[in-house]
Amino acid sequence: MAADDGEHGIEPDLEVTALAINVAIPEHLQWTDSRRDVEFRLTTLNVRMLPDGRLAAKAYGRPTAGGRGAYTSFRVPDDHELTALIDRAASRAGAMWSGHRGVGA
């Protein structure tokens, strides 16, 4: 994703290759899914903004039987509440990014 030369004076040739946020899934929206005979409780979304501006999300969590488990991604179900959560989180992250104060500030 190439940065634009808008009002912030960003270099037009500065290439940003990823924008990603982690979002806690509220308990009432969490779900379980299985991989390799291990059931996981999905508690976190990793949301990325793709180069064309669209959003993509994967879910992560811990095994329901306990333990750390592997860092395994799961597809996010097509659910209007989860989609709304992703959209709200991306908007919130955008506002937070635009207000950054620089490194070490």
Summary tags:
105 residues; alpha+beta; 5-stranded antiparallel sheet; 32% strand; elongated; disordered N terminus
Query: Helix fraction?
Result: 10-25%
In round numbers, the mean pLDDT is 88
Q: What is the CA–CA distance across the termini?
A: 26 Å
Which range does the strand content fall in? Answer: 25-35%
Task: Look at the helices and sheets and give the structural class.
Answer: alpha+beta
Per DSSP E runs of 2 or more residues, the count of β-strands stands at 5
Secondary structure tally, helices: 1
Coarse shape: elongated
Radius of gyration: 17 Å
> Quick one: biggest sheet?
5 strands, antiparallel
Name the helix and strand elements from N-terminus to C-terminus, one letter apiece.
Answer: EEEEEH
Poorly predicted runs = 1-5
Write structural notes for this entry.
This protein has 105 residues and is α+β, with helices and mostly antiparallel strands. The chain is 18% helix and 32% strand. It has one helix at residues 80-98, and strands at residues 19-24, 31-35, 38-49, 55-63, 74-75. Strands 1, 2, 3, 4 and 5 form a 5-stranded antiparallel beta sheet that branches. Strand 3 (38-49) and strand 4 (55-63) form a beta hairpin. The longest helix is centred in the last third of the chain and has 19 residues, at 80-98. The chain is elongated and about 50 Å long. Residues 1-5 have low confidence and may be disordered.
